[in-house]
Amino acid sequence: MLDPALEAGGLGPTAFSVALAGDWAAHRAEIEAQLAGASVLVVGAAGTIGAAAVRQLLELRPARLELVDLDENGLARLARDIRSRGLGGRAAIGFNALDFAGFPGLALAEAAGPFDLVLNFAAVKHVRSEKNRFTLLHMIDVNVVRQRRFARHLAAKGLARRHFVVSTDKAADPASFMGATKLLLEGVAFAAASDGAGAPTATAARFANVAYSSGSLLESYVQRFEAGQALAAPKDTRRYFIAARDAARICLLAQLACAGGRVAVPRFDPAAGAVELADTAAAFLRSRGKAAVFTADPREAETLAALGGDAWPVLLTPRDTAGEKEVEVFRGHGETIEPLNLAALEAVRPAPIDPQALAACVDALAAFVDGRRLGDAAAVEAVIGQLLPHFAHVAAEARLDDRI
Questions:
Q1: Of 248, 206, 240, the residue nearest 48 (C-alpha)
Q2: pLDDT of 102-116, one tens digit each?
Q3: pLDDT in tens, 340-391
């Protein structure tokens, strides 16, 4: 169990988390009035943010939740947690191990809909999935091609009043394929929402790192510490962190407050609110009664870890892997900021994208995904670059999978 002070990166409450808590207190009754008795579909419900959103939703007394995720073990853990803590109340909850955009997932949405709200957390979220063309194509399939199929299905069948998708800070002037696919996700969700009277209102949110989320660097601290191993962090790299519950609240506030076609982003200077990743490792170790010893030598880190004691090694690695930025940004070229009635969040109005050009780009990516065209990294970059002129992929030979 984490010390609450560690939940948002290890350095305690931030000005952003305090502002967000105020926004939630001010607007919780309005969100509850919106969702009490409502029918909600949550896609990607077993992930860190999805599960936190489900727990938050259950406090708002919806009538029915349909939860969808490919991770059947994650859904089982979520079901056990809900039942053991008595969170379900009178809500009817369906736990569905499905691909959200395959035929069974689309058929479930149609059979169980319409929904007052669809919260969509489905994603391939790691830049490390760019390691080869096969995992890259899978990322494109999940983040773009299937998202368009799903969004068009909701619109064509009139299955949702509101459709919310989670984006990322990496979508602002993307330097990675992951960021580019998330910017395209925003585009396909917003484009589908303009198709006909039955289309939902589509909104999104960009925020960066959820502390201790599945597969994250901070989660690795827990795993490595328990295994008696050195921690690791890239040097000279700053990130800001939020707790999973705060991520869920951002999503619920964004879908309520944002106009259609807008993206909620944190209302602060990310450079000012970011922390050195090395500092998060040191804070984690302090919470365990240990003192961080920083080293750039893997052998020294291994030796120190074997000794145990109160000093614990933290291996500092160079920031030289593909797609990395020094610090997060939330607004890209051609995007404008619009105010929201919130202290913690504001809205980004995306740069205009020609609908026909967007459709042609996604069609070309779909051809790579299903094998009709050879889709190596250079071909993918060329297709995306034609639509997104500020996509500047940061290539590198070093890969995160090759590091501890």
A1: 248
A2: 999 999 999 999 999
A3: 999 999 999 999 999 999 999 999 999 999 999 888 999 999 999 999 988 9
**What is the rounded CA–CA span in Å between residue 222 and residue 228?**
10
The edge-to-edge listing of strands for the beta sheet with 291-295 is 231-234, 311-317, 291-295
- What burial class does residue 112 get, using C-beta atoms within 10 Å of its C-beta: 0-12 exposed, 13-18 middle, 19+ buried? middle
The mean predicted confidence, pLDDT, of the chain is: 90
Q: Can you tell me whether residue 31 is helix, strand or coil?
A: helix
Q: What is the residue-wise DSSP string for 131-186?
A: SSHHHHHHHHIIIIIHHHHHHHHHHHHT-EEEEEEE--GGGSS-SSHHHHHHHHHH
Peptide bond into 389 cis (omega under 30): no
Q: How many CB atoms lie within 10 A of CB 371?
A: 9
Given 3-state DSSP classes, what are the helix, strand and coil percentages for the chain, each rounded to the nearest 5? 45, 20, 35
Residues 319 and 325: their CA atoms lie apart, in Å, by 9
Is the pTM of the predicted complex or chain greater than 0.85?
yes
Lookup result for tokens 């936190």: 52
For residue 100, with 0-12 CB atoms within 10 Å meaning exposed, 13-18 middle and 19 or more buried, which class applies? buried
Tell me the per-residue pLDDT of 229-266, one tens digit each, with 9 for 90 and over.
999 998 888 888 889 999 999 999 999 999 999 999 99
Which of 284, 293, 300 has the alpha carbon at shortest distance from 314?
293
Quick check: 135 and 181 in contact, CB under 8 A?
no
Q: 60 by DSSP, 3-state: which?
A: coil
